[in-house]
Amino acid sequence: MSRAIGIDLGTTYSAVSVLSETGQPQILLNQDGESLTPSVVFFQDFDGKDEPLVGIQAKNLAASNPEAVVQYVKRQMGNPNWKFDSPSDTVYTAEEISAIILKRLKEGAENALGEKVEDVVITVPAYFDDARRTATKHAGEIAGLNVLRVLNEPTAAALAYGISAEKNETVLVYDLGGGTFDVTLMKIKDGEFDVIATDGDRNLGGFDFDNALSMIIAEKMEEQGAEDIYTDEHFTALLREKSENTKRANNCGKNKCLS
Length: 259
Fold this sequence. Notes:
Elements: E1 5-8, E2 13-19, E3 25-27, E4 37-38, E5 41-46, E6 49-54, H1 56-60, E7 69-70, E8 84-85, E9 91-92, H2 94-113, E10 119-124, H3 130-142, E11 146-152, H4 153-160, E12 169-176, E13 181-189, E14 192-201, H5 206-223, H6 233-251
Parallel strand pairs: 1-10, 10-11
Antiparallel strand pairs: 1-2, 2-3, 2-4, 5-6, 5-7, 8-9, 12-13, 13-14
Helix pairs in contact: 2-3, 5-6
Function: Acts as a chaperone.
Keywords: ATP-binding, Chaperone, Nucleotide-binding, Phosphoprotein, Stress response
Protein name: Chaperone protein DnaK
């Protein structure tokens, strides 16, 4: 019997974990030897047929091919009006894009474990409504996975940080991710994790920090005479990429200038 995996399907990055022999969660490395996979899909058009790339390769192509790249699709889960038209004129829903990402994560897990993977638990924000949860589960099924459960991210975080379900206590979990900032108050009693309240800003995350930094830089460039910055998709995507790299470097305690 194959082991079940856990997937954090994030707005900007996703990760896969499995329980180790000691019962502790262990992050699996992807095909690139990394613990995090960018939640990005790049669509290559081969004779009218899409050949999607997922992960760091897709992310690296976002600046040069913004029209063929999908990012931040988690924000659109459960939205029936959102569609993406690929270069081959194929129309994808948010569920189908997420399924492509999940399939790549599944393949990476199988490569790391050396066995076939079918069962999965996928985490979602506590505020996700039924439509978003159903869309997430459906995406997993499209990817060929048996979705055992769609679990609240704060509950998964509490378990990962060693908060025992055997204790009766109230905990506060905050999650500042790539797309959202969420705070959840949970009561743990008799092995059950009950969400008492959840709130936050669903349009505030690392992506928005990148945009804010990009806008500051763009304004400085306009002051120096640059024109048509916001109408150039390629330049806008490149600026956001450089802004993210600068943010990450400075978060690591390194002073870095955008170049």
